[in-house]
């Protein structure tokens, strides 16, 4: 989805620092692919549930191993919305009124929130499974 990729120009590494930014660029590309899948499946969002479940499993393991926190998704979502708004405001292709931008942002926020919530559900389930199997404590006490 080249149109969406142009919204995230901050993912392009400075000249000479390409190697240092490869992991971040890879994650940004994966996120764009997920947004694209969401847009392409707006009439059938259940079609992307396996992708989101897989991301939830991966982030659940990160929570367990390196301390990933579910509230990071809120920060991530707000940063994404901020960059989308900037892209709309600075668009040289289309001129957007502030009302149109606000309406578009509400739709983007709804899509991104739905994606993040589905991933968070899987994170909680994975975290519960890991901690219940270790009999440390109830997983719900952590959330």
TrEMBL record:
<keyword id="KW-0408">Iron</keyword>
<protein>
    <submittedName>
        <fullName>GLOBIN domain-containing protein</fullName>
    </submittedName>
</protein>
<dbReference type="InterPro" id="IPR012292">
    <property type="entry name" value="Globin/Proto"/>
</dbReference>
<comment type="similarity">
    <text>Belongs to the globin family.</text>
</comment>
<feature type="domain" description="Globin">
    <location>
        <begin position="2"/>
        <end position="85"/>
    </location>
</feature>
<dbReference type="InterPro" id="IPR009050">
    <property type="entry name" value="Globin-like_sf"/>
</dbReference>
<dbReference type="InterPro" id="IPR053341">
    <property type="entry name" value="Oxidative_stress_globin-like"/>
</dbReference>
<keyword id="KW-0561">Oxygen transport</keyword>
<dbReference type="InterPro" id="IPR000971">
    <property type="entry name" value="Globin"/>
</dbReference>
<keyword id="KW-0479">Metal-binding</keyword>
<keyword id="KW-0349">Heme</keyword>
<dbReference type="GO" id="GO:0019825">
    <property type="term" value="F:oxygen binding"/>
</dbReference>
<dbReference type="InterPro" id="IPR044399">
    <property type="entry name" value="Mb-like_M"/>
</dbReference>
<dbReference type="GO" id="GO:0005344">
    <property type="term" value="F:oxygen carrier activity"/>
</dbReference>
<dbReference type="GO" id="GO:0020037">
    <property type="term" value="F:heme binding"/>
</dbReference>
<dbReference type="Pfam" id="PF00042">
    <property type="entry name" value="Globin"/>
</dbReference>
<keyword id="KW-0813">Transport</keyword>
């Amino acid at each position: 989805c080249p149109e969406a990729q142009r919204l995230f120009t901050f993912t392009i590494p400075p000249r000479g620092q390409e190697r240092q930014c490869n992991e971040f660029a890879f994650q940004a590309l994966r996120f764009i692919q997920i947004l694209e899948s969401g847009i392409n499946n707006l009439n059938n969002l259940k079609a992307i549930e396996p992708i989101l479940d897989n991301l939830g499993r991966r982030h659940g393991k990160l929570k367990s191993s390196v301390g990933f926190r579910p509230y990071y998704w809120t920060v991530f979502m707000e940063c994404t919305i901020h960059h989308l708004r900037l892209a709309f405001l600075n668009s040289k292709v289309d001129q957007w009124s502030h009302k149109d931008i606000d309406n578009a942002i509400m739709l983007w926020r709804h899509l991104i929130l739905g994606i993040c919530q589905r991933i968070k559900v899987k994170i909680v389930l994975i975290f519960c499974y890991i901690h219940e199997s270790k009999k440390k404590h109830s997983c719900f006490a952590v959330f």
